[in-house]
Design a protein that fits this description.
The chain is built from 7 helices and no strands. The protein is an all-alpha fold and 187 residues long. The longest helix is centred in the middle third of the chain and has 44 residues. The protein is globular, with a radius of gyration of 19 Å.
Length: 187
Amino acid sequence: MSGDLADHARPPRLGELFVAFVTVSLSGFGGVLPWTRRMIVERRRWMTADEFNAAYSLCNFLPGPNIVNFSVVFGSRIAGPRGAVVALVGLLGPPVALVLVFGALYAQFGAVDVVRRALGGIAPAAAGLMIANAAKMCAPLLRHGFGPAPFVVVATVAALSLLQWPLPWVVLTFAPLSIAAAWWWRR
């Protein structure tokens, strides 16, 4: 997989990888996906938008937090197991330290009205970031055409929400269906 990086900017060294994920982790309150994409695709050009979407799609399918999975996948593409550990520690280290500090502060000052209102104002900003990032991730789909993807999405949402299928059934049904539909669309 590391051959994919040949057409892009120079692959990062371990220190650059660590600093990039520390920067991302300190930038993203409420989620770091938008910041990760901006850092890796737009600023550093370590991946194309299509490569990012493909790697992130894999990480959505794997168990665990998607962005944590992405840091491990991306880090391992760069420098094997060492890269995976460096990216993971860069992504998780600062937030863990901050959560411990903020948790202690919240325990002390969480009942203060100004603090509660400030925390309530952060939620709409996080939602806006997620919507903007989803729009950016859809751009490659617009270039290549949607094909059967919207129909699979609608069927999946219907199976989960309207039919209330158990999640394992939905995954076992729609994962192979979406793979087959994508293969058929691109052949």
